[in-house]
Amino acid sequence: MDYQNTLTTCTYCGCGCTLFLESIDGKLTGTIPCKTGPVNEGKLCIKGWNVHEFVQSDKRLKKPLLRKDGELVEVSWEEALDFTATRLKEIKEKNGSDAVGFCASAKVTNEENYLMQKFARAGIGTNSVDHCARL
Amino acid sequence: MAGLAASFGSGAMTNSVSELEESDTIFIIGSNTATSHPLVATRIFRAKEKGAKVLVADPRKNQIAAFADLYVRHKPGTDVALLNGVMKVILDQGLENKTFIKEKTEDFEGFKSQIEKVDLDEVSKITGVSVEDIKTMAQTYAEAEKASIVYCMGITQHTNGVNNVKSLANLSMLTGQIGKPGTGVNPLRGQNNVQGACDMGGLPDVYTGYQKVTIEEANKKFAEAWGVPELPSKVGLTIPEMISNIEKDEVKALWVMGENPVVSDPDANHVVKALEKIDLLIVQDIFLTATAKLADVVLPGVTFAEKDGTFVNTERRVMRVRKAIEPIGDSHQDWQIIQDISNRFGYKMAYDSPEEIFTEIAALTPSYAGITYERLEGQGIQWPCPTQEHPGTPFLHKDGNFSRGKGLFHAIDIKPPAEVIDEDYPFWMTTGRVYAHYHTCTMTRKSRLLDSEISGGALEINPSDARILDLQDGHRIKIASRRGEIETQVMITERVEKGVVFMPFHFEETNVNKLTNPACDPIAKIPELKVCAVKLEKA
Ligand code: SF4
């Protein structure tokens, strides 16, 4: 049995409580609050105590989906990535850079948001990047 | 954010969460802290135990209000009127901090002459708060040694959201309640990494660390670092603008990462129409959300438990996220997905890890320059952190030395919400968050325990209104605004005042955003999610 504890930051609100994710043989089993967390000092709210649950939900998307004849169907990564890049290229060429918009996210990491706006600005050539937290 | 940045030069929370324990007065406005930020509320409870006074102003009597020393229920959309009233009292009674105003701020005179015109009786009429309560609030706040303001979406989600925030900044400068531990103005961020998304340039006008795309120097620096001959210097579109440009056939492709605008956008019908119309909708997410269902291509990313990286919490603290398990199914790292598409598109990226990306961020962002993954071990670091030796910054604007130089006063006039009640739509409706759920629920409702805590959205209504409409708890009711109609059940409660109804915005089944008003604040472009006019009919 492989039991692991991984120190990380709760993803449910802006408090930034730190916690350990417990896993056994690569499956999450629970959370433990971190005593030295600068905000939470060993506490978690009900959301934090259950933050591992959604991760292994059977509703998680497991394969890329592509719309074919009106339906979303499972495809390979190759096909999904090629389709996306090709369509973006076509639209940029035909309609210009500002015909593409990007919605960054308050739910993903800094590194991911950084990369998205870098691609928007340097790759596509538009500043139309925004995030839903405005809402 | 836009409001605070204009007043102080930085849009972030001025203090650390733990410092709230040191405050002797905490003024909470438009924030249901106990439910949306439970572990910030803990600090407020502790401060109160140590003798701090807690002042709460909110149209809805939320949990934190129940615990306040003084709670005032002002009418929805009357925040500026209330704050102007409070500042009028401070000036009338000579409670302002004259030295601070003189040495640390500018444009005070214009602000002062505007406040002098305020009539307290009229404020009382507009807000529904007694003159006596306004006076008590003013005195308690101004006379405190260390007063903190705490606010959230209740303040920003209005057509005059920026003015609301500027008014709070005015109040803190007027009394010198800023620039010390436990003393300042503190916006609580709703979702976990809002601060980070903004810091990283997830906004149409700035690169990382709020470096403006319109400033030539910044523009050149980034173009060089990113290996392109030039970068666009025109400010881009906000999400509401992208949506309307889809309708005008000007925006043809949209890439949505980790967000569900169909549920979180005001006036959701109109968003659905736009997303159905667009040529290419790319959705990168962990679940098949309402938005993903409309997509042309859906790219499965991973949750926080499956990735390495960093988040920034509400107090500007950069913190590590660490991978605990392997990606579920055939999902890919979100940074990898972007890199793969970028490479296929023809813009080369060759990162090996999130850490490598972070190193690039730090090199391009002065406020992050001293931060490395290694230094983030332990407690994380609060920006600004300009050098490797810098310990980070627990509170901003030390001793009133503002990021922008001097603090800037703004004269703010009272303005009614964009939509007001009338004969046809006689009820004010406000929206907000409920305990145990998180934004549009794409994550929390997949958690059985959290979903059973509270399931389905109910409309909160005052007992006297319920009586007139012949309603009982659990009855079905139709709610209509000028934009749409939804049906739900009612919950009768004193939490809302007569003439006001409240509904949470999390639930797809009863999508309250079908009713809300997309009118935007002219500067921050934050839609007026908080207030609209509705009519009610028993279903
Ligand atoms: S444990 Fe609760 S308060 Fe802490 S970050 Fe998570 S959701 Fe927020």
Q: Can I get a quick summary?
A:
The complex is a heterodimer of chains A (135) and B (539). Chain A is an alpha+beta fold.
Give the helix/strand class of chain A. Answer: alpha+beta
Count up the domains of chain A.
3
CATH class of the largest domain in chain A: Mainly Beta
What is the β-strand count of chain B? 21
Radius of gyration of chain B: 24 Å
Per the CATH scheme, the topology name of one domain in chain B is: Dimethylsulfoxide Reductase, domain 2
Describe the structure.
The complex is a heterodimer of chains A (135) and B (539). Chain A has three domains: 3-49, Single Sheet (N-terminal domain of TfIIb), CATH 2.20.25.90; 61-95, no CATH class; 96-135, no CATH class. In chain A, the strands form three sheets. Chain A has a three-stranded antiparallel sheet with strand order 1-2-3, with no helix packed on it. Chain A is of the alpha+beta class. Chain A contains three helices and seven strands. Chain A is 28% helix and 27% strand. With 539 residues, chain B is an alpha/beta fold. Among the domains of chain B are: 2-188, Dimethylsulfoxide Reductase, domain 2 (3-Layer(aba) Sandwich), CATH 3.40.228.10; 427-538, Barwin-like endoglucanases (Beta Barrel). Chain B is built from 20 helices and 21 strands. In chain B, β19 and β20 (527-528) form a beta hairpin. In chain B, α1 (2-8) runs parallel beside α10, α4 (79-92) crosses α8 and α4 (79-92) runs parallel beside α10 (161-175). β4 of chain A pairs antiparallel with β9 (297-300) of chain B. Iron/sulfur cluster (SF4) is lined by residues 10, 12-13, 15-17, 40, 44-45, 47-48 of chain A.
